[in-house]
Amino acid sequence: MQIQKGIAEAESLLEDLGYDTLPVRPFDVARSIHSDDFKLSMELQSFDSDKILGRAEGNIKGALVYINSNIPDPGRLNFTAAHELGHVCMHIMPMVKSSFECGTKELSNQFNDPIEQEANGFASGLLIPQPLTSKLTDGDINWSNIDIVSRACEASLEATYRKMAYSNKSPSALIIHQNGHFVRFVPMNNFAYFIEQSPLTREQQASLTDVRSENYPTYFDEVDAIDWVNPSSKYGRLSTIYCSSILLNDGFSYTLLAYDDDCLVGVEEEY
Question: Where would I find the IrrE N-terminal-like domain in this sequence (predicted)?
C-alpha cells in the first residue's frame, strides 16, 4: 500500500537523521537533507492561486520546494511541506518524476494517485512518527489521545487521526461539519458503511463537546447507527454505533465514529 510505503520511508529517514524529539519540523528536515551531493532549498512563497499549496522540482543533484505562505492553518502548512518533502525523497531523488504542483486534491488521501498517496504517507510518517508518538498515549482512537499527539507533533487533528488510525486497524471514520453543514467524510480501516452528507440534527449539535472550554473527551456515546450511517452493508447490519463529537473554532465540528461486533446484527462474513 502506497501510504504505508510513504510512512515507512519517512520514519526510516528520521532514524537515519537522528531525530528523537517532537515536533518534527519539515523545514528543519529539509536543511538536514541538504548536502554537497544534493542541494535542497525549501521556502515560503505567496502564490497567485490559493489552489496551489506546494511545488517541488529538481533532479538527481538537488531540488527547490515552495510552500504557499498564505496557508492559514499551521498544521496544514506543515503537512503540505512534509508532503512536498515526500516528493523530493521518494520521487525526485530517485528520478521517478522531476516536478510536482500540489493542491487540496493531491493532499487528500481519497485522491487515487499512487505517487500522491506515497507523499501523503510520507507526510504522515514525518510529522507523526510512530516510534516517537507511541510513548504519549495508549494508542486508543479517542479525542483526548488525538489532541495529545496533535499538540506534541504540531499537526492537525485530521492528520493525527489518520496516522493513529493506520496503526490501530479497527474500523473508524471522521466526519467534518462547519456550522452544521457537511464538509468531509474520512473512512479508515475498511469502515464499511456510508453516511448521508446531511446537516447535523439538533440532537447531534446538542451532543457536541465544546473543546474550546472543556477537555477533549475520551468517551464515546452508543447511538442508533441510522442516526449517522446507512446501516446496511455486505458485512451485516449495524444496529448501534459509537460516536464522539467535538466543537472547535470557526463553527467546525468533528465526529469520530467506530463500531465492533457488538454493534452488528446479521453478520454475513468477517470483516
Answer: 57-135
Question: How many other β-carbons are positioned within 10 Å of the β-carbon of residue 137?
Answer: 17
d(CA 159, CA 146): 10
What is the CB neighbour count within 10 angstroms for residue 174? 21
- Strands (DSSP E) found in the chain: 39-45, 54-59, 62-68, 99-102, 172-178, 181-188, 209-210, 221-224, 232-233, 236-238, 240-247, 252-258, 264-265
Total count of residues recorded for the chain: 271
Strand stretches in 190-231, DSSP E: 209-210, 221-224
Question: Taking the C-alpha atoms of 255, 226, 139 and 119 in order, what is their torsion angle to the nearest 10 degrees?
Answer: -70
**pTM of the predicted model as reported, rounded to 2 decimal places:** 0.89
Rounded Cα–Cα distance for residues 16 and 77 (Å): 24
With beta carbons less than 8 A apart as the criterion, state whether 10 and 121 touch: yes
Burial class (CB in 10 A: 0-12, 13-18, 19+), 206: exposed
Residues 46, 68: contact at Cβ < 8 Å?
yes
Sheet holding 54-59, edge to edge: 39-45, 62-68, 54-59, 99-102
Q: 1, exposed or middle or buried, with CB in 10 Å at 0-12, 13-18, 19+?
A: exposed
Place of cell 506546494: 54
DSSP 3-state of 149: helix
Confidence at residue 270, expressed as pLDDT on a 0 to 100 scale: 43
SS (H, E, C) 109-146: CCCCCHHHHHHHHHHHHHHCCHHHHCCCCCCCCCHHHH
